[in-house]
Amino acid sequence: MLREFAPPELYIHPVDHYSNSASSAPFVLHRSNQGCQSNVSSQIVCTSSLSWIPPQSTNLTEKTLLPTSFREAYGQYKYLIEEEVSDLPSKFQNIVEQYLLCKDLETHAEAYCIVCGIGLDLYNYIGSQLITILSEYGNVLEATRLFYRLHDPDAFAWGAFISGYTSNGQENLAINLYYQMIQTNVEPNSHIFRVVLKACANALALLDGWEIHSHIIFSDRDSNIFVCSALLDMYMKCHRLEDARGVFEDMPEHDSVTWSTLLAGYASQDLGHEVLDLFCQMKKGGISPTPVTFISVLKACSSISSLEEGQITHSSLIEHGYEDNIYLGNSLIDMYSKCGLFEHAQIVFNRLHVRDVGSWNAMIGSCALHGRLDEGIYLFEKMQDEGVKPMIITYVNVLKAIADGAALDVGRTVHSSAIMDGIESDVFVGSMLVHVYVHCGSLEEAYAIFNNIPSPNAVTWGTIICGYAEHGLGTEALLLSKKMQENGVEIDQGLLVAVLKASESSSCLTQGQSFHALAVEWDMQHDELVGNALISMYATCGNLDDAINLFNKRPHRSTMAWNALISGLASQSPDYVHGREALTAFWQMIQVVQPNEITYMSILKVCSNLCALNQGNMIHAHLIEGGLRWELKVGNALIAMYLKCGNLEYASCVANTLPSWDIVTFNTVIEGFGRSGLVKQALHLFDEMLRNNIEPNDSTFISILSACSHDGLVEKGHEFFELMKLHGIGPKIDHYDLMVDLIGRAGYLNEAEDFLETMPLTTDFVGWMAMLTHCNRLVNVDIGRRSFSVLVKMDPSNASSYVLMSNLYADAGMLEDAEKLDNIRKSTNGAIKKPGKAFIEIGNKVHEFSVGCRGQDLSGPVYAKLQELRSQLKQNGYKPHINMAQGRSSKEEESMLWEHCEKIAIAFGLINTAEGSTLRVSKNLRVCSDCHDATKAISKVEKREIFIVDTYRVHHFVGGQCSCQDCY
DNA sequence: CTAGGGTTAG
Fold first, then answer.
1. Does one domain contain both A146 and A102?
2. Which DSSP category does A924 fall into?
3. pTM for the full predicted model
4. Which of A41, A290, A407, A858 lies in the 20 to 30 Å Cα band around A682?
5. Contacts of A901 (CB under 8 A, 6+ apart)
6. What is residue A889's three-state secondary structure?
7. In residue terms, where are the PPR repeats (predicted)?
8. What are A770-810's pLDDT values in tens digits?
9. A646: phi > 0 → left, psi -120 to 50 → alpha, else beta; which?
10. CB A392 within 8 A of CB A401
11. CB-based contacts of A527: which residues, under 8 Å, 6+ apart?
12. What is the number of structural domains in chain A?
């Protein structure tokens, strides 16, 4: 296939051409570090008007004798013409050659003009060299013009031309030129083959590579060591190990370069062991390694994380006297870093006599890998102080460190310096910036960056979609996923993981299934990460069968796969639908693989949700048994679990053994104390936290505000609400909702309503629900009605607002209104009450109960116990909370109350545990007022301590009283 | 005419 190429230009007389080229400066430079092209053109202009001084010497055969200026040489040339010396161009050629060998811009420019001026550029040899030089300066256009002025380009000229296109990133045009050359009957020589194979290697043009390989065999040059090296390299770059190996085996001899080419190929495909094997063979064959060989060997050591091999290689390269090679220094930094020895990387870096940008990149990359944010930033600044300009990869590395350290402020600083360098919209830098802002929780800034990247790739899309999904903005994540598909982004594994997370985060099974189909279409469903994301998505979206099916089909079940299953099952909060399955899976998992901190965090969360203290205890014991020094995160999860189960002693035991407390520890304990009604202690901890110089974050204020709310501390709540602003934290909707709850709980309904209506954010369902709850409690029909109408507009399908309002009417004696509302709920909008569920752990088993326990295999004794309690409690002053609105008899109503899942769970617990032992029940909704009163009475009659943990707080019942003091 | 292989990577 030949493509139309630029037609040859007409031959222009040298003198005419001279004036032409003077106006169109040929050295339009793209090289970043060479700046002053204005001098060049001015010089070109004055060149033409100079009068030439006759030379001092006419001995032009002396190659070493280089005139001080090219103009002087031109004078010699004129002199030679006058003297009518024969073989003139070849004499002048020597001078041209000398000049072209100098690598400075001004000489080149000057020589170029003069050479063109006298027509020497039309000689193949000089023309070829000029083409090479022009290409080096990135001026492909002028190189092309020059090439087409040549009368009869030879292979050398074609070679220069083809190689110029290759080095300027136009490999496909370069390959076409090769075919064009064959058509003009120029026989390709080994130089041409090398040059065109290089183009194929860069462009990964395997088909052309194969074709050219056949030309090479045909032309009998397949034993040329240079040609074979190029072939080898081409096959390696195209990932054709077999073909490359074939070329290598068939070669008549191997030298250090062919070996290095082979090793580099294996190293680039992360085949570390193969590289090390081949390296041994190479040495056995008596070939001495070069610095380039060592680069591949070091890369191999890091790819197999073998510090031992790395150190052997290090001493070996010192023996060979390559210690000061900068490439090797940089590779050593990388090797030590990837083999886990950050300090060694630092030593190598500090010992480098000369540092290039690669040295800084390797060291900053090492900081990023080892979480050394401060050092990374320091180096990033220092390199610039030393005049080394950061590259894209430098930014990528330093931003990675910043993202891992969630250092928002530093992130912004580096961001602005990326803007100064004009690369903030580069797709690599931009993707990393998106990642930084996502990881720091600033999604607005992340999205702004994302929007600014002209051609986002799969990674960019994946980062922003994951960002939204992981911050609970599933709907937004899904919208972006669809936009991504419309934009026709090429799908990769990471992107599939992202869109599956988006589906998971928005609990959208149908979307998840369609992305599953997409994964199958791209044949990526077997990829480890995609597979795990699928399992997690199905488990989270409640499709247990598919989750387990996919999990069982996995040939190899890694810790990650188990985590996907367990965290998926665990994440069904607040319904805890599959919490019990998650526990089963966990105990199976530890038989076969080692859990990690993610496993423990998910499973401890399950124990918290189910109030499964025994299970939690066993997992704690398992952790201690494993002898692992667990991460703070796991410690925090343990504390949270014990607090949620109402076991403050164990919680404080764990808290006291932690070597240090981080912000999560403080937040967890403050939240837990508040939940258990230990508000004074929670407030005290907040002060303690400040004294420890730990800056509170927005979660801290969630915890502290809800603690205030639990104790009705309105004043304190307002104080904290103002304090958070002083700490630079803008209150979010959750904080406003908590304030509404706090003010309402204290009985100031009007103030609470004012607060809602004047807040600067858009109100949400939670806030108005808090409002209606307190109206209900204080029987305020007026405000209650207004709240209800807002709630119905927001979410007509949510039954909880109807139920609350109906109860409010009933309590206010407005039975007709109550009944009307119930009928509307049942008939028109189909709003369904969320089914209540209660869990109780007996021994090591967690039992689940729902209202009326339909479908539960309950033995007679539980009902017998319920009947017994019913009559016992009545004698002890318990009055059933009968809602008169339902149109049923009070007897029926009372029976229904005794079908509540909390009561069944308690009855089940009472008959299945020893007398006097503590019961712990968890509830997926708030405990109802009737069950609350009944449990108070049960705790007295049965002489039991009972905990009911609901979504709001820990209720601790002892001797007829509850720790919440009926404030719930 | 001359020659090849390469560090840092979302």
1. yes
2. S
3. 0.75
4. A407
5. A836, A837, A838, A849, A850, A851, A853, A923
6. coil
7. 154-188, 224-254, 255-289, 356-390, 457-491, 662-696, 697-731
8. 999 999 989 999 999 999 999 989 988 888 888 889 889 98
9. left
10. no
11. A493, A496
12. 4
